[in-house]
Amino acid sequence: MVSGAGGGGNDVQWCFSQVKGAIDDDVAEADIISTVEFNHSGELLATGDKGGRVVIFQQETENKSQPQCRSEYNVYSTFQSHEPEFDYLKSLEIEEKINKIRWLPQKNAAQFLLSTNDKTIKLWKISERDKRPEGYNLKEEDGRYRDATTITTLRVPVFRPMDLMVEASPRRVFANAHTYHINSISVNSDNETYLSADDLRINLWHLEITDRSFNIVDIKPANMEELTEVITAAEFHPHQCNTFVYSSSKGTIRLCDMRASALCDKHSKLFEEPEDPSNRSFFSEIISSISDVKFSHNGRYMMTRDYLSVKIWDLNMENRPVETYQVHEYLRSKLCSLYENDCIFDKFECCWNGNDSVVMTGSYNNFFRMLDRTQRRDVTLEASRESCKPRQVLKPRRVCAGGKRKKDEISVDSLDFNKKILHTAWHPQENIIAVATTNNLYIFQEKVN
Amino acid sequence: MAGAEGDDSLYPIAVLIDELRNEDVQLRLNSIKKLSTIALALGVERTRTELLPFLTDTIYDEDEVLLALAEQLGTFTVLVGGPEFVHCLLPPLESLATVEETVVRDKAVESLRKISQEHSPVDLEVHFVPLVKRLASGDWFTSRTSACGLFSVCYPRVSSTVKAEIRQHFRTLCSDDTPMVRRAAASKLGEFAKVLELDYVKSDIIPLFTALASDEQEDLEALVMPTLRQAAEDKSWRVRYMVADKFSELQKAVGPEITKNDLVPAFQNLLKDCEAEVRAAAANKVKVFCENLPEDSRETIIMTHILPCVKELVSDTNQHVKSALASVIMGLSTILGKDNTVEHLLPLFLVQLKDEVTHLELSPVSHLSVSLSLVVKDLSDCTTAETQLFIFQCPEVRLNIISNLDCVNEVIGIRQLSQSLLPAIVELAEDAKWRGVEFFDEKLNSLCMAWLIDHVFAIREAATCNLMKLVEKFGAEWAQNTIVPKVLGMANDSNYLHRMTTLFCINALSEVCGQEITTKHMLPVVLKMSTDQVANVRFNVARSLQKIGPFLPWLD
């Protein structure tokens, strides 16, 4: 384990490592990154985009002779995961945008991941090939046929080394199980099953069976006019294969135990913080909607992201979170304009570092926030082209909420709300983070002295 | 063999070999299926030195191809030169045993098990066991799960040192981090236990739950029972479901004593489980479980322990539970005997019949109706009039009984029928469901009367017809006392349709009632109606007269 994993957000100095994606300002819609995920070892980093493509980067093995040269992530494989489809029955287009990617724990030499768009989940196998067979009986290697009469002996092909080739092949397609848009997938710790969640239902799948899935949560009311709440995210517990949580648009999280009954409509635990009456406003319910929920690696806590804050919950305490961090409180007075430009509905994700001591989430103006739980400190950093020099240390950024703006601060009104960081990922063991701006992927690493 | 015969015989083999690399998966599959042909053509040495190395590296293929390959290799002993060289087949099978597709791994393990028998004890220790050890300590759980299936086949014939190593590996896999490996180990527990020496079974094997069907292994029962009890009360409903599902096998395995003492309470709990799926699974096993109870205590056990639970299940909220029960309840009647059936099972039946949901399931109802008609034959033995009445309050039961009125009549007799059934059956006439649906062979009088004045003409007509049959059946005297007065009474009804019905009835009845009744009672009524206000009635009077004419005594 690299030493950096123990450090907190502020002891660590983050520096630029790499940026992926087109440099120009003209953003092609298809290139907008929609999900980022490290695999279980951190060696591979996958991104999905709006055009339905998956790009996987691989960490180069460190060069021991040059410790300053931090390992870089280079393209390992690119493939088209989903294509746009048309639902003829409802006259609706099904977007090819990749909503989520989840890696399976490695089970043999190949790598496996699940990628999903709004309706269909696919299991992809990414394997390496470094040898190829040579030697035909009836033709030359270039394809020309030989004269059949010249064959006097039989020839068995032999494998010879070749340049490494990485192939991605779809192994399973899990389709037709969701009426509404899939927002989450989560692999069970039993490595055999996974769940997929849409606005109203959660289904349980077996990785080897594509024609059947079990519905384990159904919050669709008998009368759709009574609909008040939708599912926004869902995740399996990292160790307990029978436990999962799902969050809602009303700011609640439900923990369910699949052993208790076949249909988990009744939750085992309900996590909800009573509303602060002083903060009540027209937008209270909208901003309380949880956009992401993630268990900590040790399985004792879970983190939720709503529009303005990040909350850490102890699984044993349902009535309030144990920690609350403000992400961009200065936006509270701007909710009206954020509502008008729809930004209030942006779904920010959040993530834990390897030892659950620091959490990270994105904001606007290409800012992202590192919240150190042990040291109770936080920092705002920016993913920008200006700080793209190799190993350049990122400077903390400050937003001026009102009053006199100091030097180096940026005023709230100058924030660019089109530059949002919704997707971030943290290497499972090292202090390496991947931050996605609209169409670029930034990789930052801990500064090594 | 190789190449000696000339080009013609080589050509097809050459094609097959080349097609092992064809882009079309069907062609590759075809070649793999003909691998033995290729091997024969190459001869044993080239098969060993060239073909097998090539196959070992071809794991980049589609599942179907790999599956076919795994299967082929299991039959290749002769083609590589016999048992002396069978270990050459191990490398390709080893790599197939680590593939992510379960079906391919399973087939590879199956083939490995097959060829293990061809290995000499020395070869087992030199080649086979190292392979198993490599798989068992592999990085990926896929290879470790495959290893689980290979312990029992190599254990018997190796030396005791190696045996100890194998046992150690198996123990390690039973407590592997990955659940899939533990489960694979658990599923092979029984098989491995069979090849172990008894001492090691007691000392080494972890008591995981498995369905063992062998009586010899009494010691294993002692190991299994605590686990079974635990499983039946497991927190996870799926475990309890599996226990319920396998209950009859369990029963056979543990024998009558343990069944009485342990399984009956366990079964009761499963029937009362909080999860509907578990209750349904247990309900499906009720009949089989009861059938397999020891004969001497069977009836007692069922009456005291099982039946009370079953009674509760009949009013379960879950549809699947009730459906499961419907198909087994009557099966119990043969076990319980007539008295218990009528007293205990019949009411349950009826509750089910009444239930909306069970109605709609054709099979239970038709099954029930068949059994019910048989049961009804025993109704005369039934001591409680209440039960009789109760029975007839249910429409489906009435339907069945009416359809089987012959047998009911044999048993009960008309008087009893009319006396005890009358109050209940009048209800049936108002039951909207049965209008126009069925034509019955016989009718009871009030029943018929109701149908005679039904809104629907066809019903009235049918009722009339049935009336005729009734009279035929029960005789003119009966008709005179019961039916005729009622029919004639209708002649004074304010509804002209009812008056016309009287005429139609008279038309029908005159034939069977005989001259006397027709002349004395029916004719006057007909004549009276000849002055009816409604023309249609008068018209039908004329027709009636024509009809009944032949039955009137000719006046001189």
UniProtKB/TrEMBL annotation, chain A:
Name the UniProt record assigns to this protein: Serine/threonine-protein phosphatase 2A 55 kDa regulatory subunit B
Keyword Repeat among UniProt keywords: yes
Summary of subunit composition and partner proteins: PP2A consists of a common heterodimeric core enzyme, composed of a 36 kDa catalytic subunit (subunit C) and a 65 kDa constant regulatory subunit (PR65 or subunit A), that associates with a variety of regulatory subunits.
Family per similarity comment: Belongs to the phosphatase 2A regulatory subunit B family.
Annotated GO MF terms: protein phosphatase regulator activity
Database matches in PROSITE patterns: PR55_1, PR55_2
Gene Ontology CC annotations of this record: protein phosphatase type 2A complex
Highest taxon in the source lineage: Eukaryota
Keywords: Repeat, WD repeat
TrEMBL record, chain B:
Listed transmembrane segments: none
InterPro entries linked: ARM-like, ARM-type_fold, HEAT, HEAT_type_2, PP2A/SF3B1-like_HEAT, PP2A_Regulatory_Subunit_A
Keywords of the record: Repeat
Residue span, Phosphatase PP2A regulatory subunit A/Splicing factor 3B subunit 1-like HEAT repeat domain: 256-337
HEAT repeats: 12-50, 89-127, 166-204, 224-262, 263-300, 306-344, 483-521, 522-556
Pfam families registered for this protein in UniProt: HEAT, PPP2R1A-like_HEAT
Family: Belongs to the phosphatase 2A regulatory subunit A family.
Name this protein carries in UniProt: Phosphatase PP2A regulatory subunit A/Splicing factor 3B subunit 1-like HEAT repeat domain-containing protein
Taxonomic lineage: Eukaryota, Metazoa, Chordata, Craniata, Vertebrata
